[in-house]
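// run 5 | inverse folding | seed 20
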């Protein structure tokens, strides 16, 4: 029996833009706008308009999750739903009422509400006017939004997270073109990374200066870690993996926990002529406003090797000047998603948190497996027999448990996601939920994995 610590968080994570639908929203975020402009980019032309209709179904959904044993639930407060006037931080009454009802419903069902402030849902108006996260003006407008959230919800919400996966914003929008505005501009990417880290520190400062923090609340940020493993033990491959670790993982981790950026990374960015614009005052804010705790999302490792070419002439800076992707022979794969399955990395993350980050409290805030055409696995009673998901979760929990046993300060585990939700450009191609959602009828049905996890939660182990 693998037993987890007392008061362990068991539950799942979603986000406002991926679950709520666009009902009663007066403003559009980047993905709302992108779908309007280029719906053909989205799988099966399915956009965010309805998503999983959580806007209307949250009461029943939370009751269902409570019946499955969930004691915690992470979602996000949409800037575009809560705020009417971004410059003045004026509240939208419908948005305020919705989030109050959502939070109260969580508490009524014995579920801890965990609120994220930015989950890829930047208002398109602020991108068009300022360039979005390219601008420090937007950082300050975001802080004003966060203060509104703390003021209205901080009496009941004790767990706050600033960003979800800021590196995905950097990569998707400015390097790899899978998030709007889908451009390739390495210098902008680096500045956006800095601005997101600055936003984290400024929001934390605002939280601690406000009344909400006096209610025994905590604030952190959620980072996606993709541990970098070298193709071999050659010096060149080790160097490549080290840089991949600096850029993909330690850039945001060091800023959030240690209050400073990795010196080696800063030196490389400076040498390459792309280092962010920063002031001594901003760096002091980052240094003095570090996180209370962290959420860590993990799905797959990053395997790298020394780069095959040195880009003497290149149109734009890229971190991939310093490493190439390595496809390890014999790797286990989720071929639907194209991601390697390597649960051992969860243990490596746990030990890194223990040894490199002062054993800061953390939880595994997203972990899950996306599978397409799950109808293939439906039994005669109509239930999806997702044994592959049970195996995936069990293997990752086993390595998480090993890390906890060796002293890593992990206090929870959240599946992505409780109920099938909309997934950006992939829409509903790959399903991650413990609960099936029929997007045509919005009828929910618990998958086999949902009942399996219920037993794990009841036993606080397996």
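// decoded
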């Amino acid at each position: 029996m693998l037993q987890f610590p007392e008061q362990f968080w068991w539950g799942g994570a979603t986000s406002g833009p991926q679950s709520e639908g666009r009902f009663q929203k007066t403003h559009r975020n980047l993905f709302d706008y992108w779908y309007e402009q280029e719906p053909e980019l989205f799988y099966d032309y399915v956009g965010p308009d309805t998503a999983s209709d959580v806007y209307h179904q949250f009461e029943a959904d939370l009751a269902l999750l409570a019946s499955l044993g969930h004691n915690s639930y992470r979602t996000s407060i949409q800037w575009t739903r809560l705020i009417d006037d971004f410059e003045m931080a004026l509240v939208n009454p419908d948005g305020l009422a919705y989030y109050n009802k959502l939070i109260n419903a969580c508490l009524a069902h014995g579920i801890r509400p965990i609120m994220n402030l930015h989950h890829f849902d930047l208002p398109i108006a602020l991108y068009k006017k300022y360039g979005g996260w390219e601008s420090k003006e937007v950082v300050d407008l975001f802080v004003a939004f966060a203060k509104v959230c703390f003021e209205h919800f901080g009496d009941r919400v004790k767990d706050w997270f600033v960003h979800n996966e800021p590196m995905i914003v950097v990569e998707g929008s400015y390097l790899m073109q899978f998030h709007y505005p889908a451009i390739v501009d390495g210098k902008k990417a680096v500045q956006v990374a800095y601005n997101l880290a600055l936003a984290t520190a400024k929001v934390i400062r605002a939280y601690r200066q406000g009344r909400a923090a006096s209610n025994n609340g905590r604030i952190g940020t959620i980072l996606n870690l993709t541990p970098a493993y070298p193709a071999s033990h050659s010096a060149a491959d080790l160097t490549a993996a080290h840089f991949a670790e600096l850029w993909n993982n330690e850039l945001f981790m060091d800023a959030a926990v240690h209050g400073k950026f990795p010196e080696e990374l800063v030196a490389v960015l400076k040498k390459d002529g792309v280092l962010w614009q920063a002031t001594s005052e901003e760096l002091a804010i980052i240094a003095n406003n570090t996180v209370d705790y962290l959420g860590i999302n993990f799905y797959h490792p990053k395997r790298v090797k020394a780069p095959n070419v040195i880009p003497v002439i290149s149109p734009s800076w890229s971190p991939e000047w310093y490493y190439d992707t390595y496809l390890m022979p014999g790797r286990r794969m989720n071929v639907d998603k194209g991601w390697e399955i390597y649960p051992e990395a969860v243990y490596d993350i746990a030990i890194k948190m223990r040894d490199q980050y002062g054993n800061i409290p953390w939880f595994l805030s997203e972990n899950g497996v996306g599978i397409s055409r799950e109808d293939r696995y439906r039994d005669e009673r109509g239930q999806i027999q997702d044994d592959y998901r049970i195996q995936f979760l069990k293997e990752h929990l086993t390595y998480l448990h090993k890390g906890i046993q060796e002293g890593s300060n992990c206090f929870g585990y959240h599946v992505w996601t409780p109920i099938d939700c909309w997934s950006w450009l992939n829409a509903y191609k790959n399903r991650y939920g413990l609960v099936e959602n029929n997007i045509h009828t919005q009828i929910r049905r618990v998958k086999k994995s949902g009942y399996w996890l219920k037993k794990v939660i009841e036993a606080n182990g397996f």
